[in-house]
Amino acid sequence: MQYIIVGLGGQGILFASRVLGEIAIKRGENVIGSEVHGMAQRGGSVISHFKVGSYKSPLISAGDANVLLAFDQNEAIRNLHFLKNGGYGIINVHKMEVFQNESLKKYLTKRNISTFLLKGYEILNEHMKGNYLFLNVLILGAMGALNLGGISFDEVKDAVSKLSPAKFLDDNMKALDLGKMATHES
Question: Mean pLDDT per 10-residue run, the chain (186 residues)?
Fold first, then answer.
């Protein structure tokens, strides 16, 4: 499996990669990855290439990723080219109308790319007092609930509980459950 995780600096892209790595290692699978930081400390683009299996290179070529986890809709659109035909993206969306663009819809249809559009900011505003620190875990919860890449919600929950700093554990568990609930409400 090949994952591209994208967003902006401070959104927890690297923690999400660690969670995927923990799951793979617990399964006894090989893991390789690479993070590309732009202006991460200033809210710039961050992309993580993450592979599970017998790969030699950490970087994912355009058209090869199975899953795109996008914590920012603009970064999602910039990085859709990484998804293979039949790939899947979970995208945090703050302006749903962007995904009504005819050219974008044609591109996704032509490449048979499925997307789950998650209103992460709205969910976190409503249920976690707007604490966007947990957006990454919310998306991981949705990924597990959708069983993307063959990763179950319970595996995600176990990995997050192991890797989460103690002071964030309860909020991370809540965000995971919110991500799972979001997949049932759409």
Answer: 92 92 95 73 82 92 97 96 97 95 96 97 96 96 95 98 97 98 86
**CA distances in angstroms from 88 to 1, 9, 17, 35, 147, listed in the order given:** 12, 23, 17, 20, 11
Q: What is the pLDDT of residue 75?
A: 95
What are the structure tokens assigned to 180, written together? 């799972």
Q: Is 66 helix (H, G, I), strand (E, B) or coil?
A: strand
Residues with Cβ within 8 Å of residue 46, at least 6 apart in sequence: 6, 7, 8, 9, 11, 13, 14, 35, 36, 37, 38, 40
Q: Is 42 helix (H, G, I), strand (E, B) or coil?
A: helix
Q: How many helices (H) and strands (E) does the chain have?
A: 7, 6
Strand order in the sheet with 65-70: 31-37, 45-52, 2-8, 65-70, 83-92, 114-118
